[in-house]
Each structure stands twice: as structure tokens, then as C-alpha cells.
Amino acid sequence: MKSYKHFVSVTAQVYFCSSPIRIDSYNRCQFGCTYCFARSRSKVNALSGLREANTVNFQRRLERVARAEIRSSLDEFLERRVPIQLGALQDPFSPMEESKQVTLRLMHTLKDHSYPTILSTKGDLFRKNRYLDLLAGMNAYVRLSAAGVAETYRPAVDFRCGSFRSVLERIRFLARVPIPVSLRIQPVIPGFEDFALDMAVEAAGAGAKHVSFEYLKLASESLSSDVRRIGNAVQKDVWGEMQQAGIRRIGRDYTLVASAKAPFVETARKLCQRLGITFGAGDTEFIHLSDGNSCCSGSSHFLRGASEFRANFSGILSRKADGELVQFPELLAEWSPKHNVHTYLATNSRGRDRTGKYSDWMSLLAHRWNGGKSPYSPSFFAGVTWTRRFDKEGYKIYQFRNPLQE
Questions:
Q1: Residue 78: what pLDDT?
Q2: pTM metric for this prediction
């Protein structure tokens, strides 16, 4: 079996995510979620056949980092103990794990280093004793996922993943152990928002301490087939409804415009407050409005000794009170890696400042700060507008106005 070359990496979400490093056990997943865009994103790897994470190399990397032998920006993130997402792209507990046990070996290494870990899955293999015993001793929490859709359509949407009742049972099981558990309702399929809210109520009742919500995204690489497949699964013209509400392309994805999402985001946030659980905004435009210091994942509520990555757009915005200014030097005050980050990113995410005044990471942010160089700048995020002023270095000065009513 060949090893999966890019099984551990810095992700392109580094511009807005507080946990932008991930590790995947395999280069593919055996669940069949109708909306999954990982299929098209990982197509090159998948065509080369099944590949597995190099667990020995990962163990050696963490041992080397523990000795302060730092060779890359990924090493810097690991030394800083930025939470790592296990299963960020491919589910670590799909059926093949039963025999191959790559995830089990990765969990051993993460436990040995007490490394802050977000374990994302739709599976339930973690309930077996050999996983549960490890999980109970890890510095980790489990993030379960389910689509926001009517239960009638779930078998065709969360294909091979089971009912929402089975998700609730996993939440109850983990809460009894106890192991921290959150629910990610992703995607919220337009037209099924009320069902997503009901799911949050049930999850909180079962013992989930955090719920995040994220609207449907459609990959440009497979748009026509995905539109057809999702429409057939829920027996309605989802794409047509999205077009009527307003669609925006962000990078390679199509999603609803922010103004169409905002009423639901506000309702979901208030619901979580009433339920006594924390709220995560999974849609990038609203991610800085999540509770805590860890964007949508909620990891800051659960993990010990973790350092959330704050030197990005949402990192500085999440601390802003209504009416406060947003300025470029605030990024410089946060910890950030000194080694190259752009080498981990796709070509269209690598544009950076060439003046030589900043580190590689800060040059990537500087290149985008005034807008127009990529989808991301402060003004991309809800509630942020340009004041029509620049600082002495020529960077725009923005202002934050909370778009959600308190």
C-alpha cells in the first residue's frame, strides 16, 4: 500500500480558520454524502488508488518537533500546539478503518503527545473499546456531522451514514463516557432551515455542548452533476431556489450570498444561547461571530493547552466590539509562522506581497488586505466596511459593525 503524500498539511482555510492544519488517515472515504465536494477536490489522489497516511513519519515528525527541530511552517504550527483536525477532508472512521486501523495508529501518536485534536466523523467505530480507550485518554473531542435536511430525505443525502437518531445516540454515548462532543450541521440545505434548528435542539438535549451550522456549498468542478444529484435526493430544485435568493462564487465554490444567510445565522445563534450551548458559524463570512476563540469548531471550549491560530482575518475580527476599527498592524501583534506557508497552498492562493518587509505568511495577508487580490480581505466578512481611510503604510482602515442583533 502506497502512502498518502499529503495526509498532513496546512490547509487553504488558513486565511480564516483557527485550526488550519489537518491530518487524514486515507485519501478517500467510503461514505457517499450527496453534497460532498471532497470527491472532486481529491480526485487526483483518488485516481492513484487507495493510499494511507504514513503513521511512522507522523510519529517521527511530532518527536522531532518536541525536540525543537523545526523545519517548516507545519512544524511551527505543531510546536505551537495549534489544534489539528483528524478527518478534515476524508472521514477517518469509514468502514475500511475496521481492517486497516490507520486512524487507530494516528490516535496512539496523538495521545502520546497529548496533542489537541478535533476528531471529525460520521462513523461510529470510535465506540469500539480499542478506540474508546484511546479517545478517553486523548486531548481531543469528537465532532459529529449531519446534513440539515428533513429526515425523510436523509437516506439519500447522508448516504450510508445512518439516521439522525443514530447520530443522537452517538452524542449520548460520548456524553456518558464522558468525552466532549459537538454537532456540525453541514450542509444546511436551503429550504430546510427549520429542520436544522430542530436538530440543534435535539443534539443539545442529547448532550452536545456545541453546534455549528454551515450552508450548502457546490463545487464548480462538478456543479451540474451535484445540482442534479442533490435535487433528486431532496425532490426539489435547490439550485433554482439558491439562484432566486442570490448566489455568490467564493474561490471554487458556489453558495448563497451573505444577506440570504444572515437571518438564519442570527436565529441559530440565539437558539444556541437559549439552549445553553456554544454556537459555531461555519459559513466563512460569519465565522468570526462564533462563540469562543476557535471559529466554528468550538475547540477552545474543549482542548487543553491548545493555541488557536489568531493571525488571520477572522482571528482579529472575532475580538472586535461593535464600532471598533480594524487595522493591519493588529495582525503583526499575533503569533504567526516564519517558514513558508504558500508552499502548502494551491497556486491561486499563493499571491503575496513582494516588498520583503514581512514574513511569508504576513506577506500573504498584506497582499490581500486592501481587497481585490483574492476573495478574502477584512471587507469579505459580515459587518466589516472600509472607512475610506488608509494608514501610513497604505493599508485600508476598516470598521466592524455587528451584523447580528444582540
A1: 98
A2: 0.94
